[in-house]
Amino acid sequence: MKKRLSEQQEFEIMKLVLDKFLWLGFILMAFGVYQMFANSISIGLIWFIGGVLLLILFMILIIKEYEIIR
Question: What is this structure's pTM?
């Protein structure tokens, strides 16, 4: 038998998971900036773009999952 979560519980779990996406995206971007200065711009740019893509994925997931009320 599966347990059902309330909307608040589901939102709290999603916040925990999406927080990891944010950290990983910003770490990739920071590592990309480090690589740009330490090695070459092209390698750093690849890491930086990877972090940007992860954060865009994060944004799409939030918009798709939750209704934005204005």
Answer: 0.71
